[in-house]
Every structure is written in C-alpha cells, then in structure tokens.
Design a protein that fits this description.
By secondary structure, this protein is mainly α. The protein is built from 15 helices and no strands.
C-alpha cells in the first residue's frame, strides 16, 4: 500500500516496476527493462487472482454481517460505528505510509465516494435489511455492476454498444420483476431502499474508479472514510444514546466484520488484485458475489431461499457477463 501504487496501472506493475520486495532489477541508462520470466509473471497473476477472490468473498459477507449486527444494534448505530472503526484503521494506514493529502481538485470526487460508499449504501441497505431477507437483497443488489456501468457511461461520456444497453435493461427487468413478485405485486419499502442504494453506490464506485487513475484505490476509500469521520463520530454518539444496544457474539462479530472486512480490508485486497490481473478480469470474478451471498444466507442465517432467488441471480449474472464482453 505504497503511496505510488496504482490500481489501474496493470502494465506497470506486471512489467516495468521493480518487485515490491526489492528483488527486481532496475534498468540502467540505454538498456531495455528486462522482461519477467514466465514463471514469475504466472505467479504474479495467480497472486493477484487470489487477492481479487478474497475481495469478492469479503463483499459477499456484507449482508449476513449486517443481519448479525442488527440482532443487537439499531441500524444507525451499525452504520455509524462501522464507518468510525474503519476510519480509524484507514487513518492509521494513511499515517503509517505517510500518504500526502490529495490535491484540492480531487476532494469533490472523494466527497461523492464518501456519500455513496461510506454513508449512503451502508445506511440504505442496513435499513432495507430490517424488512428484507439477505437473499432477497443479494438478488436486487446483484444489479450493481450494471448500474455502475451505466453511471460510468454517463459520467465519462463513453457510449457502450446497443448490446450492452439491451443486456442492462434485461437485467434490470429481471430484478424489478423478482422484487415485485416477492413483494406481492408492488415493490416494498425494502426494495425502494435497495434501489436507492444501487444509485448512490454506483455514483460512488464511478467516481472512485475515476480517482483511482490518480491515486491507489485504497487511498480513495481511506480518505473518504477520514473525510466523514466527524459526521460518523457525532452520528454514533447520537445513535448509541437513542437506539437499544445488546452486545452479543453475533452483533459484535457482524459489526467488526463490516468495519474491518467489508469496509476496509476487502477493498485493500480487491484493488491490489485488480492491479495485478487487470480491472476487466477482476470484474469477471465479481459476478459470483450475489450467488455467494445466497450461500452465506443459508449457512450463516438459516434462511430458506425462495425458488425464484437462484434463478433471478443467475439471470442477472448472465446479463452482466454479456455487458462485460461488450465492454471488453
């Protein structure tokens, strides 16, 4: 997590940058940099793929962790405490590695990341999980990669192909149909909160992806956490004084996972994995996230999956795979 790492500079990491442990060879003047041996390159790709898989696994446990935390805490307490704890770790990492403050022109983007990823998405999904099951939420939020891609297209001005938009619309129709069918004919309060969470998180991911071209991804989320720390500390104090609190193994374990696993460490390994294998290949691995969450909802929470949940998740996965191919 050095200050000069980049989550998007795949070619630099794989070819011309010295080994992080200091064992690489630096080219001298007038010489071409040596090409890494095939075994070394293969090991780097394998390590990057493993890190990306760990990131996906961490994110897939977010909803079960939230459900556990809600067993002993109110929703506002969960959201504010997870952000405070993650900010302590992120701030410590930024200080240890002596990361310089971002340039002034980047702070607006960091604020969007903070509003979407640090506050908006966790709060809206936590409120939704008070009335929705984790399996239901996993299917709805499985649309996030498509929502992010659409938001990115609007933000960057890139015009995806017609196939991309058709697959995106089909995926959205599947999710909306699933939500309506499960809610008895009309989207419920939880569904509306989840759809709102998709929008704010997509905005946060899009802006974070843009900022990751200028600074390492872990620093983007780190500065976003630090930026809203005064708000989350004040919010945690108010929430703890107004909401019931019962410390159990589940509630504490769920909160700690949300703070250190989902909110920070998951993002660290995810971005480092992307740096090693490339954003496109890493995004393919993320297709399994909704299905993993369905598995955790059964194993950890004892939920009984509605028959439509796995089918809807697979349909959304297929739509996302089509969009990835058209964007590749």
């Amino acid at each position: 997590m050095r200050a000069n790492d980049s989550a998007t500079a795949t070619a630099t990491i794989a070819v011309s940058t010295p080994d992080p442990a200091g064992q690489g060879t630096r080219a001298t003047a007038g010489q071409e940099p040596p090409t890494p041996a095939a075994p070394a390159r293969s090991a780097l790709v394998s390590r990057g793929a493993l890190l990306a898989v760990l990131g996906v696994a961490a994110f897939s446990l977010t909803f079960p962790g939230t459900a556990w935390a809600l067993e002993g805490m109110g929703p506002w307490t969960v959201v504010m405490l997870r952000s405070v704890l993650a900010a302590v770790v992120a701030g410590g990492a930024l200080a240890v590695f002596r990361v310089r403050l971002p340039e002034r022109r980047h702070w607006a983007g960091i604020a969007v990341v903070a509003g979407g990823v640090v506050l908006g998405f966790p709060l809206l999904t936590t409120l939704a999980l008070e009335t929705s099951t984790t399996s239901h939420a996993a299917v709805v939020v499985g649309l996030l990669p498509l929502t992010t891609a659409a938001c990115s297209a609007v933000r960057t001005g890139v015009r995806p192909s017609r196939t991309f938009w058709i697959a995106s619309l089909v995926g959205a129709a599947v999710v909306i149909g699933f939500a309506v069918q499960q809610s008895g004919g009309a989207p419920g309060r939880g569904d509306l909160l989840l759809f709102a969470a998709l929008l704010v998180c997509a905005a946060g991911y899009t802006e974070g992806g843009r900022l990751a071209r200028h600074m390492p991804g872990w620093q983007v989320i780190g500065w976003a956490l630090v930026l809203v720390l005064p708000v989350t500390v004040a919010g945690a104090a108010v929430a703890l004084s107004t909401e019931p609190l019962q410390l159990t193994a589940h509630s504490v374990g769920g909160l700690l996972w949300l703070a250190f696993g989902s909110q920070f460490l998951g993002l660290v390994v995810w971005y480092r994995g992307m740096a090693a294998i490339g954003i496109h290949k890493a995004s393919q691995l993320q297709l399994a996230q909704p299905l993993l969450t369905l598995v955790w909802s059964v194993l950890l929470l004892g939920e009984r999956l509605p028959p439509a949940a796995p089918a809807a998740a697979l349909a959304v996965l297929a739509c996302i795979a089509v969009t990835q191919r058209t964007r590749g």
